[in-house]
Automatic annotation (TrEMBL):
One GO CC annotation: cytoplasm
PROSITE patterns xref list: CYT_DCMP_DEAMINASES_1 (PS00903), CYT_DCMP_DEAMINASES_2 (PS51747), PWWP (PS50812)
Entry EC no(s): 3.5.4.12
Signal peptide start and end residues: none
Essential cofactor(s): Zn(2+)
Entry protein name: dCMP deaminase
Domain (CMP/dCMP-type deaminase): residue spans on this chain: 125-263
Keyword Membrane: no
Recorded GO MF terms: dCMP deaminase activity; zinc ion binding
Any Pfam family: PWWP
Keywords: Hydrolase, Metal-binding, Nucleotide biosynthesis, Zinc
Domain PWWP positions: 8-77
Top-level taxon in the UniProt lineage: Eukaryota
């Protein structure tokens, strides 16, 4: 019997035995379509029948779902890319793009032959953007134990400095030690490493950092705190503070409080931002 996609092009999240939650469309046979038109569909447009056929987007595969609870409205739910097997991620991303294109076309109807455009509402916030850049910068660090990144922005949300922890220019990453402990203090990294905050301040591309904010992936130590205060930075947004009870963190908070520098933990809504880089394509897939 002939089958067709539902005419409304409604998109759902569907979970099957062999695939994680996946963008899909309901598929009806002509007989099922006529029955649905007479009896009406179930909640959220899904039929209440025990067996529901769907077509998985991108891979163009039809499957049968026996449990209606495994079909959810697309707009009301978000699933993380990390739950998708690596071998399926490219197909999943294409399915996600296809689903969003269908939804955008539905929400931006044509008028006089011209599609009425509407801005995206799933773009990342300024805080997510700058903290994401700080974390991306941290990935440049050669430190095998702790990778930290920092990003400085001015009042116009313009990036004026960025940095990560590492050795000074001209000092070989392959010669100086990366050890955290040693019989001789000269055999540890602490005698040589420049912290991310220091590098970001020294790398600024403007006259000074007065009135700026710093996004950093780790709460600043007492030495970086001094540089932050002296540079005129007025606010620090940090991702984590794993040395909260250490003397250096206590000293940093004490100096920040005295100098009037605001410090707050990052509070972005997204827990992950994934950048997918392909040979001929590069785009963001954001997971909430």
């Amino acid at each position: 019997m002939a089958a067709r996609l539902n005419e409304k092009l409604e998109i759902y999240w569907v979970k099957t035995e062999n695939y994680p939650w996946w963008p899909a469309q309901l598929v009806f046979s002509e007989k099922e379509a006529e029955a649905n038109e007479k009896e009406g569909s179930g909640k959220d447009g899904c039929t209440a029948e025990s067996n529901i056929r769907v077509r998985l987007l991108s891979i163009d595969k039809e499957v049968t779902v026996s449990n209606p609870a495994l079909i959810l409205p697309f707009k009301n739910h978000v699933f993380e890319l990390k739950d998708v097997e690596l071998s399926l991620r490219d197909s999943f991303c294409r399915a996600l793009d296809f689903a969003n294109n269908i939804i955008n076309h539905q929400t931006n109807p044509q008028k006089n032959g011209i599609i009425q455009s509407k801005k995206r509402d799933d773009y990342i916030s300024w805080d997510e953007y700058f903290m994401g850049l700080a974390c991306l910068s941290a990935m440049r660090s050669k430190d095998p134990n702790t990778q930290v990144g920092a990003c400085i922005v001015n009042a116009y949300n313009q990036i004026v400095g960025i940095g990560y922890n590492g050795f000074p220019r001209g000092c070989s990453d392959d010669v100086l030690p990366w050890s955290r402990e040693g019989d001789n203090e000269l055999d540890t990294k602490y005698m040589y490493v420049c912290h991310a905050e220091m590098n970001a301040i020294l790398n600024i591309n403007t006259a000074n950092a007065r009135g700026c904010k710093m996004y950093v992936s780790l709460f600043p130590c007492n030495n970086c705190c001094k540089m932050i205060i002296q540079s005129g930075i007025v606010e620090v947004i940090y991702l984590r503070d794993k040395y909260y009870d250490s003397n250096m963190s206590v000293a940093s908070r004490r100096m920040f409080d005295m100098a009037g520098v605001k410090y707050t933990v990052y509070s972005g809504k997204r827990s992950d931002i994934l950048i997918r880089l392909c040979e001929n394509d590069s785009h963001w897939i954001v997971c909430s």
